[in-house]
Amino acid sequence: MSEALSSNQAILLVARREFVTQVRSRSFVIGLVVTLALFGVGGGIGYFVAAQNSTSSLGLTADTASFRPALEATAATLDTELLITEVDDQSGRAQVDDDELDALLTGGPGAYELLGRDAVDPTVQSVVSTAVQQQALATALAGAGVDPAQLAAQSQVAVTTIEPSDPDSGQQLALALVATILLFFSLNYASLVATGVVEEKQSRVVELLLATITPRQLLAGKVLGLSVVGLLNLVVLGGISVVVASATGVLTLPAAAFGTFAMAILWYLLGFFLFAALYAAVGSTVSRQEELQSVITPIVFILIIPLILTLNLLPSDPRNELAAVLSFIPFFSQTVMPARYALGVAPLWEVAVAALIAVIAIVVVVRLAARIYQNSILRTGARVTLREALRTRS
Amino acid sequence: MLEVRGISKRFGKLQALDGVTFAVKPGEVFGFVGSNGAGKTTTMRIVLGVLSADAGEVRWQDAPIDSEVRRRIGYMPEERGLYPKMKVGEQLRYLARLHGMSAAEAGTSVQRWTERLGVGARIGDEVLKLSLGNQQRVQLCAALVHDPEVLVLDEPFSGLDPTAVEVMSGVLRDKADAGVPVIFSSHQLELVERICDRIGIIAGGRMVAVGSVDELRSREAAAVLDVEGPPAGWAADLSGVEVLASGDTHTRLRLAPDTDDQAVLVAAMAAGPVHDFRRWRPPLTELYRDVVQDAAVPVDHSGVPV
């Protein structure tokens, strides 16, 4: 004989079904693999490009060999490695053609030529032209009786910053970007709530379920189960990223990575419940999967806008004021605030305030969504308008 | 006893239910009949708490039904519904557990009911891969799997082949014999007449008749007699008697309420040898037609069984 089932048990049973069904599904595994592959390819390209840029080889002919000290000095200032070899003009050209040299500086005063195969790396171009210009300038100044060293000393500009400049800012930026993108992918799992709600409505199984448990229990279980699916996605991808990045020496800030990771999980949970409630509410107003796409598009936009803003504003300007404001506003904060934290511009108290605002928003949105869901879930046929869904009681 | 007391429900301008009242005793199979839109499904949904009533209440064992009791009801909704991509066995175990069974109990029960209803071999298949008839059997398993105290089935026989109808009616009888009140709706009146102990007829949201088939028959004010033997015309001049039909040796008569049937028998025997003299027992289909036609004049509203 059946025994009393507590509300929590009912919610857990529903949550377990949702979790097991999703994790066993092909799309979850494929999603993980594809995201990992994207990260791997992205990282690989970045690493390759970086490796390409680090050293360039330049050939000098007998006529241009005198530039060697100036070239080496300029390369050092611009933080590029320049491998200089001296060749004669003809074999230099052959080596450029064979890709043994990246570029060849040849010619004479007034007709210097920088030769590359298809193109010349812009860094090498600027190193060479700076060196040549300085040499020409020095010659002209000497002719006019001015000491080039004195001029250089007088025209020096020292760059200093009020905040101590952070040697780790590059890594922080990488962490912030990875966290932002991972969060976005994981928060997308909230849309499964809408798909699941419509599946139950379309297959009519919802009537059987609601004869057993309450709409609130069904909704709570569904959101809980799917939140764990997205969390699993976040933890697996985040964990792999951190381990791989540390192992390859790309990441040298394990503490910052851990903090960013924890922050991503916090904001994942806050964002998931907020968006899941929206998805459940709109999902319950339609009766078929075909109708779903049009009603969830606005929600997808709400999720994408802060992603785009974060990726565009913060890398060049971590203290961007618009981003700072948005990082406190629900529906934006789950994306913007963790990125600001990872960049080191948002102190913990700001995070706490934004999280508190997000929690208040969750309470309000979940109440409204549950009401819409309860009033719409058994109504099939024409789409239920939000006004009807908020008003009527079935 | 399951009691439905004065339930009313309005959808916008439509009064879907108006004081629906009836009761079903443990061990009883109750047939719920009525035309489309008469209110059968709405009543059942209210019993299950899927809809809430505007007025009235549903009681089980002398207490209003709450969610705890509802969990012990077996329900088959009119709109069949199962997760299409979930395997039969997993799905039934899940539903059994939602109804409060332990994992072990659920497993045993799923095994038992799928075998009883002839879908034991399909336990590992996704529901959408089953034929409609087999999906229907799984749906019935879903109503039975948690060993319910009450069964409420909306159109359980629609779409079943004759074998499945036999299995299904056997199951309903067994559950009733085990002390479970069974309510089901159907448009197949012969079937309802054959397997139901009592019948409720609903029309336009009101119960127009409740009782056993015999009770419904006895409500026919006038008796109808079939007489076999005497040549035609013998009854034409009897007072209080209306000849409905007559053949060479067969005559059908309707007696006015206070006419003595023994006097009619004497008159018949005087006209010739009587081989057969009996009351005509109208089938449920005829009773149903009469009752629904007369629905404008509501009859007995106290559906409580005597």
Structure description:
The complex is a heterodimer of chains A (394) and B (306). Chain A has 394 residues and is mostly helical. Chain A has two domains: 8-42 and 165-391, no CATH class; 55-154, Periplasmic binding protein-like II (D-Maltodextrin-Binding Protein, domain 2), CATH 3.40.190. Chain A contains 16 helices and four strands. Chain A has a four-stranded mixed beta sheet with strand order 2-1-3-4, with helices on both faces. In chain A, helix 1 crosses helix 10 and helix 14 (333-342) runs antiparallel to helix 15. Chain A is elongated, with a radius of gyration of 30 Å. The model of chain A has no long low-confidence stretch (mean pLDDT 85). Chain B has 306 residues and is of the alpha/beta class. Chain B folds into two domains: 2-217 and 287-296, P-loop containing nucleotide triphosphate hydrolases (Rossmann fold, 3-Layer(aba) Sandwich), CATH 3.40.50.300; 221-281, 2-Layer Sandwich (Alpha-Beta Plaits), CATH 3.30.70. In chain B, 33% of the residues lie in helices and 26% in strands. Chain B contains ten helices and 14 strands. Chain B has helices at residues 40-47, 67-70, 88-98, 103-116, 132-144, 162-177, 189-195, 213-218, 261-271, 284-293, and strands spanning 2-11, 14-24, 29-33, 55-60, 63-64, 73-76, 150-154, 182-185, 198-203, 206-211, 224-228, 241-246, 250-255, 276-279. In chain B, the strands form three sheets. In chain B, strands 6-7-8-3-9-10 form a six-stranded mixed beta sheet, with helices on both faces. In chain B, strand 7, helix 6 (162-177) and strand 8 form a beta-alpha-beta unit. The longest helix of chain B has 16 residues, at 162-177. Chain B is elongated. Residues 297-306 of chain B have low confidence and may be disordered. Chains A and B meet through helix 1 and helix 9 of A and helix 2 and helix 3 of B.
